[in-house]
Amino acid sequence: MAEHSPPSRVTYDYVTRTIARTLGAPSRGYFLLLGAAVALLAIGIVTLLYLLRYGLGLAGYSHPVYWAVFITCFVFWVGIAHSGTLISAILFLFRSGWRTAVYRTAEAMTVFAVMTAGLFPLIHIGRQWYFYWLIPYPNERGLWPNFKSPLIWDEFAIGTYFTVSTVFLIMGLIPDIAAVRDLATGWRKKLYAITSLGWTGANEQWRHYTRGYLYLAALATPLVLSVHSVVSWDFAMAIVPGWHATLFAPYFVAGAIYSGVAMVITLLVPIRKLFQLEEIITLHHFENLAKLCLLTGSIVSFSYMTENFVAWFSGNSAERAAFWYRAFGPYWWAGWTMNICNGLLPWLLWSKKVRTNVTALFVISIFVNIGMWFERYVIIVVSLAGEPYATWANAVYNPTWADWGIMAGSFGWFFMWFLLFVKNFPAVSISEVKEVLVPPRRKASKAHV
Amino acid sequence: MIALPKPLQELFQPPPTPGVLGVFAFLDATLEAIKKLRAAGHADFTVYSPIPRHEIEAALGQAVSPVRAFTLIGGIAGCAIGAWLTLWMSYDWPIVVGGKPVGSIPPYVIIMFEMTILFGALSTILGILLNALFAARRVGTIQYDARFSNDRFGIFVPAGSDTAAKIESLLRESGAEEVRRG
């Protein structure tokens, strides 16, 4: 950590004031972004109303593809959610000092991404007014509570993940809200006075807080690994060729963290610029994020190779056919988009020049997001469309405007919450950024923390 | 300060405790004051800091927070609830599928795992809230300075008019940049 110590003008006071400044009056650029997000959300809402009125037939579903863009988006958003907890919990346990400047953004992203993901199963069921049929416990309405189904594991996993990541975000926010409370005036002072829950930074508060935070991180770490494993079992437990693989759990977890870190970069670049946080979120942080991207991206590429190798080496004709269909079938473009964006592009990150170039990282991160969306599209839609057991009914599935409308709406929903968050609560942790600074001492000491 | 209804006010905003508040700009000065206060036999003072510092914890000689007991009990309870939920519901509506046992433990482990995490996390939060609340009740309403959340450390020592002067000079000697009585 020592060689990356921030310049000496970055004092406690500087940190508080710089981060508190992000909560000041919004600029025109901010309103433009927020307006764009709300417009996208409006498209989604109108599409949803059409779907409610005319039914799911408006979407591109055609036999045998009944899990399509909505489920693709579900897995995409759950995946995005993963890096938040990775950065906030796993790197916390590893005592990585650099996480402090970026973890709040990642954590907020996690909560909003799970909120977005949670919408998709509801949209996908079509008749939202019967959503409570999903909860037949203990055996309400004579329905069988089947705990052997991966879909119900998923409900428990995602429900737990949403709850835990939300309390984790709020926990981290409390000392920071207290810091901005002490600077704020007017209605904001009242808002922060209530939401800081009377935080003063007294030793008795820190004593319980730091311990509790440690245990929360320790609980969130296995949780984050379990959630995407469970999501992967939604597929791997079925016998569809291309899904039925023991590799799926680690492959999905690595992919989730990969797409999540890419999304963190996509979000941090404009925030850093908009709020002038260059001194706090430095190139060192971006480089570390890029390294995480490179690591998880390599695991993902390795999984692609393993999948293809096993399909060939197993000698299983159905498996071979499925992977041939992926690469050279009617959806070859989706398969190759995924391979190029996730498998090849991240190799640029081996170069330090690229890792420390914010513009290049921003562009790469967007391509990774696109690639990871296509990965889920390939796994879900293409595996179903090419299912060799249903050749009598194969159809080439094409998404319609209703699919794209809902997807656009999900991006609007996500960015709307995110933008509202960064303007109302500290988007960078105030107390944790201070923790990695050298504390003020009477005798200026060279000792680092 | 927000006006609370009366029963809540008694709980959260007890009448102020008289004492001395020292504001410190430096961590080592704060530590020196803590050591001197402890040597002089004070144990009920409060230290404010913008960030958690292990030096402060060590100087205060605090015991490990009891929050860990909450985490453990919550986690075990969650695991048990997960097992009970799945097994009870399965046997309550028994359908044999594929010749497998009605209550199959391996898939239920996933539910038990998630419930362990969920209950463990929620009871950790409860543990932090309750412990911090009890601590606040014990200390009462004491002086605070808005700078403590920014870049200053603080020590509040409860004291009557007889001992206040002595504590004031102790804090000043240790390097407090500001000392006030309240």
- What is the domain tally of chain B? 2
Radius of gyration of chain A: 23 Å
How many domains would you count in the coordinates of chain A? Answer: 1
Q: Provide the β-strand percentage band of chain A.
A: under 5%
What does this protein structure show overall?
The complex is a heterodimer of chains A (449) and B (182). With 449 residues, chain A is mainly alpha-helical. Chain A has one domain. Chain A is 68% helix and 0% strand. Chain A contains 15 helices and no strands. Chain A has helices at residues 12-21, 28-54, 69-93, 103-124, 150-181, 186-195, 203-236, 248-275, 283-313, 317-328, 332-344, 352-355, 358-385, 401-424, 430-435. The longest helix of chain A has 34 residues, at 203-236. Chain B is built from 6 helices and 4 strands; from the N terminus they run H-E-H-E-H-H-H-E-H-E. The two termini of chain B are 17 Å apart. Helix content of chain B is 54%, strand content 10%. Chain B has 2 domains: 1-50 and 151-182, Alpha-Beta Plaits (2-Layer Sandwich); 67-127, no CATH class. With 182 residues, chain B is of the alpha+beta class. Chain B is elongated. In chain B, helix 2 (27-39) packs parallel to helix 3 (54-60) and helix 4 (67-92) packs antiparallel against helix 5 (105-139). The interface between A and B is large, with 64 and 67 residues.
Précis, in short:
The complex is a heterodimer of chains A (449) and B (182). By secondary structure, chain A is mainly α. Chain A has 15 helices and no strands.
Key words describing this protein structure:
heterodimer; A: 449 residues; mainly alpha; B: 182 residues; alpha+beta; Alpha-Beta Plaits; 6 helices; elongated
